[in-house]
Amino acid sequence: MNGRVPGVEGFGTAKPFYLLYIKRAELYFPGLNGASGNVLKVPPSCIRPALYWSCFSVRGGVRFVFISKTAPLPERCGDRLQRTLVFTRSVCIQEPRLIGTRTETLSYRDAQHCSTRARELCEPNPCENEGVCLTSISSEAFTCECAPGFTGPTCASRMEVAADGEDPTPAGPCHPNPCHNGGVCEISETYRGDTFIGYVCKCSPGFNGIHCQHNVNECEKDPCKNGGICTDLVANYSCECPGEYMGRNCQYKCSGPLGMEGGIISNQQITASSTHRALFGLQKWYPYFARLNKKGLVNAWTAAENDRWPWIQINLQRRMRVTGLITQGAKRIGSPEYVKSYKVASSDDGKNWRTYKVKGTDEDMVFRGNVDNNTPYANSFTPPIEAQYIRIYPQVCRRHCTLRMELLGCELTGCSEPLGMKSGHIQDYQITASSIFRTLNMDMFTWEPGKARLDKQGKVNAWTSGHSDQSQWLQVDMLIPTKITGVITQGAKDFGHVQFVGSYKLAYSNDGERWHIYQDEKQKKDKVFQGNFDNDTHRKNVIDPPIYARYIRIHPWSWYGRITLRAELLGCTEED
After folding, report:
1. Which PROSITE patterns match (predicted)?
2. Residue at 61 is within a domain
3. Per DSSP, what are the bridge partners of residue 169?
4. What is the per-residue pLDDT across 16-59, written as a single tens digit (0 to 9) for each?
5. What does the alpha-carbon distance between residue 149 and residue 49 come to, in Å, rounded to a whole number?
6. Residue 224's closest CA among 201, 252, 199?
7. CATH number of the domain where residue 243 is located
C-alpha cells in the first residue's frame, strides 16, 4: 500500500474532518471488495439522519471513512450501503489538520495510528444506545456522538421532551441512576482510566465497582479478633465469637468473675434446693457458702442427703452475659466431696428455665466437673448464656454434692473488664490522692495511693487519706480516654481496725483540671454510690451511662474509721 490516502472529493476549504475505523465484517460492500482507490459518497441516513455525509475509501484491504459535518448532503443513499453503515462503531478524529483543497491528503501513517487508537479506546463500543465513539491521535480519551433522543458522556441518558413542544433537554448522565445497591450518582467531568465519563457512583458501605455492582467481602480484612469466625453478608459481616469474647469484632473480653468469690453477689442472691446439716444440725452447709476458694471448717454448699434432684441458683439481679463457670469441691469431716458432672439452666424470671444444650441439637449439655476437692475446674459456654438466673444441677457427685464456684462473664453491653488496678497494668505513678496517712507517723506504714488495689494483701494494703473530710479523693490517670462502666471498692484493716468507705461520688476529666461530677440523671443531682459495709467484701457499682474520660476520681462521701480504699475500675479502652 502506498503511504497516502487520496484526498476526498467534495470537501470545502478549511473543514474539519474525521477518520472512522470500521471492523472488516461491518464494511463489506458487495461488488467493492478488494477495490482500490474507490471513493463512495454516502448520505446521512446511512449513519445518522440529518447529521453527516460520508466518503468511504477502500484501498488495499484497509477501510477508512471520512466524515464532514459541514459538506453538502447528497440527495439519496445507495441501496447497497444503507444496510451496512448503520453498524458503524468508532470514529478517530484527526484534530489539528484541516482540508484546504481537494488535492490535500492525509498521511497514511497518521491514519493507521488513528485507526489503532480507535481499536484501543472504542472497542468494545463504550457509547450506549447506538452512539458513535470518537477519538483522536493525540488524546487518551474518547467522546461519544449520540443518536437522536440520547445524551450524556456515553449516550446513556434519554432526552426529556418538554411538554410545550420546545427543544428536548438532557436528563443528564445520572437519570436514570446508573448506580446499583443504593449508590449515589454525582455529576463529574472526569476520566475513568482512558474513558471520559460524566458521573461517578458513590457506593454505599459494603459495595464497590464502577456502578457499585459488587458486594464487598468484608471478611477478607479479617475483622473478627480473638479467634472469632467471620461470615460475609450483603454489605455487612458477622463474627461468631468464642464464649469469653463479645462485640461486633469479638473485641471485648467477657470472662471476669461476677462476684461469688469477691462478695459482689450477696448471700441473699444464692439459693438452693436443700441444705445439708451435720453433727446433729450444728453444721449447716448453706448455699451462700458456695464461694470459690472459701476458707473455714464449713466452706461450701452441700445438698441434703435425701435430695434426689439437687440444684443451686444465683440471681444476678439483672440480665447478664455468662460465659463460663469455675467449680471446686471441699472436704467435709476430712473426706473429699465434689461434683463430677453437672448441667446448667438459665431463666429471666426464675420460673421458666432453659437447659443449656449441645450446640445445634436438643440434647442437654453435661459439663465435666471436678476430680478432687480443691482444684478449680473451668468450663466455658459457647454460645454464652444471657439471663438473670443461673442454676446448676449436679449429675454425678463423690459422696455428697458439695460445691464452691464462680460465675464468669460481663454486662450485656460488654466493656466491663478490669482495667488494671488489681493486675498492676495501671502503674503506681498513674494513681494519686489528695493526701496520705502514716500509721504511727512511720514511713514503713504509709498508706499511699499506689496501694489502693483490689484484693491487695499485706499489713499496709490500701490507700488511706491523711484527713477525714469530704474533700479527699483518689485519682487514676488512664493515660488515654477510656470508657468506664463500673467501679469495685473494698476496705481494709489497719492493725485490726476495720476501715472502709461507705459511699462516694465520682468525678471525671479529660485534662486533669476541669472536673465534672457524675450525675444522677433521674434526680438531676450528684450521684452518690453505695460503698462497702465491711473491710473485705467487694462492692460493685455499674456506671450507666458510662463515663468516657482520661481521669477518674473517687470522692469518699461517708466512711467508717478512716477513709480507706482498695478499688478496681471496669470498662474498655477507646481502641476496643
Report:
1. ASX_HYDROXYL, EGF_1, EGF_2, EGF_3, EGF_CA, FA58C_1, FA58C_2, FA58C_3
2. yes
3. 160
4. 333 333 332 233 233 333 333 333 333 333 333 323 333 333 33
5. 12
6. 252
7. 2.10.25.10
Domain membership flag for residue 324: yes
- Euclidean distance between the first and the last CA atom of the chain, given in angstroms as a whole number: 73
Q: Quick check: 147 and 121 in contact, CB under 8 A?
A: no
Cβ(315)–Cβ(384) below 8 Å: no
Same domain, residue pair 123 and 103: yes
Q: What angle (nearest 5°) sits at the alpha carbon of residue 310, between those of residues 404 and 353?
A: 100
Query: What span, in angstroms and rounded, lies between the C-alpha atoms of 311 and 297?
Result: 22
Supply the DSSP string of 177-202, one letter for each residue.
Answer: ----TTPEEEEEEEEETTEEEEEEEE
Residue 271 phi/psi, 5° resolution? -130, 170
Copy the grid coordinates of residue 549. 474520660
Residue 527 CB coordination number (10 Å): 16
List the domain range (segments joined by +) for residue 65. 4-148
Q: Which three cell numbers stand for residue 414?
A: 460488654
The verdict on 489 and 349 lying in the same domain is no
Question: Do residues 128 and 101 touch, judged by C-beta distance below 8 A?
Answer: no
Give the model's pLDDT for residue 209: 84
- Domain-located, residue 112: yes
CA 53/CA 50 separation, integer angstroms: 9
Contact 288, 562 (CB under 8 A): no
In this structure, are 497 and 425 located in the same domain? Answer: yes
pTM over 0.90? The answer is no
